[in-house]
Amino acid sequence: MTSHSRDGRAPVAVITGASQGLGRALAHELAARGWSLVLDARHERALHEAVRALPGGPHPGVAGDVADPEHRRDLADVAEELGGASVLVNNASSLGASPLPRLADLDAPTYLRTLEVNLVAPVALTAALLPQLRAHDGVVVNLSSDAAVEAYEGWGGYGSSKAGLDHATRVLAAEEPGLRVYAVDPGDMRTQMHQDAFPGEDISDRPEPETAVPALLRLLEGGLPSGRYRAADLLTRLASA
Q: Is 152 a catalytic site residue?
């Protein structure tokens, strides 16, 4: 990924779930590198605080629910106004219930909401941005989880939503060979979602989200083939390069 788009403008990245955690950390790094950003989060105040802390800009913050079709259209429209998205990072996720229930105890409305946010919304937002991404030979990054491939008690709802996203990522890569399409497992991080998964536990031993950002930059800028990657493996490659 070059530092500027074909028309000389800064490249545009759309990042969902950008008010905290990994989304906010990645946004800060891309802003420092001169990117134009379109940032999404559910809570307007938290999103605007995150936007104000970014270097460069201005970077539009569009508050809303990624499961809302109108909100997804707004994100696509704002990206188009900036010159069209080169990158989409589907980072927004829903854990579902906290504490995590056994799969047999997971109520249907909560499960449907988890699937809607973690699987349906990323696919739908990608579709909304697809003309822009095609025009820029773009990149789609879908944030996955080890729960998508491992059977952890209590993680059935969240894990199955991410497993579905992994598969959708592979299909999109096959259907859109002009794009680079990635599913990325960032590993455990010290985030609010991880704390919600383990209420009352001390998660201070988990790494900060910033530690996974170089792995995402490796995908955005390094030209690796479409596929599923673990941030830990990408960081190991970087360390040995």
A: no
